[in-house]
Amino acid sequence: MKHNDNRASISDELLALQRIEELVSVIAKTLLADKLEEVLKDPKRRLIYEGAGRIPVKDLAKKAHVSFTTVSGLWQQWERQGLMVKDGKSYRPIF
After folding, report:
1. What is the pTM of this model?
2. Which of 65, 72, 15 is nearest to 43 (CA)?
3. Kindly report the CA angle at 71 between 35 and 27, in degrees rounded to 5?
4. Domain count, the chain
5. What is the biggest distance separating any 2 CA atoms in the chain, rounded to whole angstroms?
6. Burial grade of 36 (CB within 10 A; 0-12, 13-18, 19 or more)
């Protein structure tokens, strides 16, 4: 019986963590909506933002017709603004 109690407890904890994650996501989107909207208005910046973590930097720069350093600089800027997170050596959008 003890084994089933532990499973129920872990299941409840996972549900609570999922709910917390959902609420934090809603709060973050609300706080960052204006900044994100500004980024996504420009087609080149949208491509660079959405390509982060999925498309190699050199390929992304080529597709957006910008330099490697422009892509890197934008990602760093967006990380400071809270729109991206750094995963090791690469970046990924938070939304």
Report:
1. 0.72
2. 65
3. 25
4. 1
5. 63
6. buried
